[in-house]
Amino acid sequence: MRNPHSNGNLRKLQADGGGEATEENGFADGVILGLDGGATSTVCVCVPFFPFGNCFPEPLPILGRAVAGCTNRNSVGETAARDSLEQVISEALVQSGSDKSDVRGVCLGVSGVNHPSDQEKIENWIRDIFPSHVKVFVQNDAIVALASGTMGKLHGCVLIAGTGCIAYGFDEDGKEARASGGGPILGDWGSGYGIAAQALTAVIRAHDGRGPQTMLTSTIIKALGLSSPDELIGWTYADPSWARIAALVPQVVSCAEAGDEISDKILVDAAEDLARSVKAVVQRLGLCGEDGTASFPVVMVGGVLNANQKWDIGKEVSKRINRYFPGAQTIIPKVEPAVGAALLAMNFLSS
Amino acid sequence: MRNPHSNGNLRKLQADGGGEATEENGFADGVILGLDGGATSTVCVCVPFFPFGNCFPEPLPILGRAVAGCTNRNSVGETAARDSLEQVISEALVQSGSDKSDVRGVCLGVSGVNHPSDQEKIENWIRDIFPSHVKVFVQNDAIVALASGTMGKLHGCVLIAGTGCIAYGFDEDGKEARASGGGPILGDWGSGYGIAAQALTAVIRAHDGRGPQTMLTSTIIKALGLSSPDELIGWTYADPSWARIAALVPQVVSCAEAGDEISDKILVDAAEDLARSVKAVVQRLGLCGEDGTASFPVVMVGGVLNANQKWDIGKEVSKRINRYFPGAQTIIPKVEPAVGAALLAMNFLSS
C-alpha cells in the first residue's frame, strides 16, 4: 500500500538495462538516497540527482529500493537501529548499481524526531557511513510526508491520520506550525486510535446501559474473537498498544456503511476533528491568504484517510477543509514517503 | 485521608488498656481481620467479632491497625505480595494483643480481582497463614467500598471515582451489576484520569488554535514546572501512568472555582458521566423500585468525590443522582475500606 509506484519503476529501469548512475544513462550528477524510518520497517530508495530544483521527470525513476527493520533507537536500541540503517542503505545502493561515492545527499524521515539532539545523533550515524562531502538531512516524518505530496516543495499543509494523527505546515518563508499529534492522552480523536477507542467506548456504554445499542457490539466482539462485551476490559488491559486498538477502524467503517448511527457519528466527528487540525495550521500560517481563498496544497497521508472505502473518511475531511478554505487543494501522494525524503534532499541541495 | 477514624479508636482502646480479645473486655467471640489491598499499600485492621449480623457498636472498636506494601502480585510479584500480606496481618494481630487462633474470619478487598482464579490464589495464600477453620473471603475493592458505607450490608450501589471510576451494586437477592470501570481506553470520563486528560486536551487545543483559551493553560504548565504547552507532549509520553495524569484534578477544580468556563464544563460533564454510571446500575437492579422512588444507599468513595472543595464534584454527582432517583441516599463512608472488609466478613460469618 505504501509503495504503489516505485517497484514498477524499478522493474522498468532494470528491464531497460538502466539503473546505474553513469554518464551513459543520464545520471551523471550522482544519486540521492531517501529513507522512511517507520515504526516497524525502514525503506530506502535511490534516485538520480536532478540539480535544477523542482525540474525532474514524473514519475521519478527509482534506481534501487530496499527494506530493513526498524531504525527507531527508542524501539529497538542503538545497535540494531544502526545496523538496519547501514543494511538498507547498502542494499539500495547495490540495487541501483551505485556506490557511496555517487551519493550526493541523504534524507531520512523519522517519527519522534523533535529534539535537535535526536536529529543530530541520527545525522551523525548516517554521516559515518559516507564520505564527508555527502549532505545528510534528518527530518520529522510529517515534513517528509508533505514533500511526498508536493514533489519536494515545503509549502502547504500535511495531514497524517494513521494510528495517530498530526497536521503540519509551512508557509513560503519557511515558518512552520503544527496541530494535534500529542497522542491519545492529549485528545487526538481523529486518529485511528481515537476512532477505535470511541467505538469501544460505545460498545461498553451500550452494554452497561449508559448508551444506545449499536451494531459495533456484535461486529467488534466477533472481530476480536470474544464472547461478550465484558471481555473487552480484559482485552484492552492485556495490551493497550495504540496500533492494536487502531486496527479496529475497518469495523467502525463497515458498521457506518451498514447504516449504524453511532458509527456514522464517530466517523463524522473524527473527520471534523481532522479538518479542524488543518484549519488551525492554515490559519496560523496564513496559507489561505488575507481573503481566505488563496490556493495551497493539503497533503493527506495515512490509513484513516486513504482507505478508499465506501464511507470515505478522507473525502469527508477534504469536503470539510474545502468548506473552510475553497482554495485548498487536497492531494493524495503518488509516491511513498521514502521518495518524499529523496525529493526533499533534492530540494535542499538545489536551494 | 483514608483513615480518619480508626487511629483515634485505636489510641483510645490502648489508653483504656483495652485491645485484647479476652472474655474480660467483651471480645470473647474472637476477632475479625479486614484488609484493603490498595495500589501502593495494604491496610489491615483487627476488630472484635460481633456474632449477631449488623448488631454492633458504632464506631466499631479498632483493636489493631497496620500498614504494609502493595499486595497486588501483578504489580510487585508473588513473593513480595505474600510477604507484605503476612507482615501486615501479623502486625495488626500483635497490636490487638490477639493471635491467629483468635481469628474467626478474614476479608481482603483488592482491585483487579475479577477472575475466580485470581481470587482463589489469594484466598489460598491467606488460608496458609491461619488454622483451617478460619473463614477467608477475597472481594473486589468495589464491594468492600460498598460495605464501608452500608456497615457491611451488600445492598445498594457504590460509586468509586479516584484515578479510575466504577459503579457497582447489589439488589436484596444478591444480584450484581456494574457500569464503567473499563479504564481510559473504554471511556471512563468521570474518573480522575478522565477529568485531567480532558483538561490537558483543552490546553493543547487552545495552544494549537483549535479551541478557546482557558485558565488551565497557565495553571497546569505552572503546576508541572513546564515553560510551554508544547512540552506537555513530552511530559505525557515520558510516563503515561494514569495516576500521574489524575493528580492534575485539583488544578481543574481550582480553575473552575476561579470561573474558568472550560474547567467548569469538564467537571459538570464528569459529574453527569458518574451519575449516569450509577443510574445504569440502579436501573438494571431495579433498586429504585417500580415507581422509581424507593430508598436505597449510594456509597460515594474516592478522591474525586470526597475532595471537599468549593467546586464539590461529589455534591454535583449527588444532586444529579437525586434528580434521577429521589429515594437515593448518598453516603460518604465514615470508616476506611479495611474496616468495610471487616464488616463484610462479619456479615458473611453471621448469615
Automatic annotation (TrEMBL), chains A, B:
User: One of this protein's Pfam families, by short name?
Assistant: BcrAD_BadFG
Gene Ontology molecular function: any one: N-acetylglucosamine kinase activity
Q: Which InterPro entries match?
A: ATPase_BadF, Euk-type_GlcNAc_Kinase
All residue ranges annotated as the ATPase BadF/BadG/BcrA/BcrD type domain in the record: 33-345
Judging by the UniProt lineage, the source's domain of life is Eukaryota
Q: What is its EC number?
A: 2.7.1.59
Give positions of region: Disordered: 1-21
Query: If you read the UniProt record, what top EC class would you report for this enzyme, in one word?
Result: transferase
What name goes with this protein? N-acetylglucosamine kinase
Source species of the chain: Arabidopsis thaliana x Arabidopsis arenosa
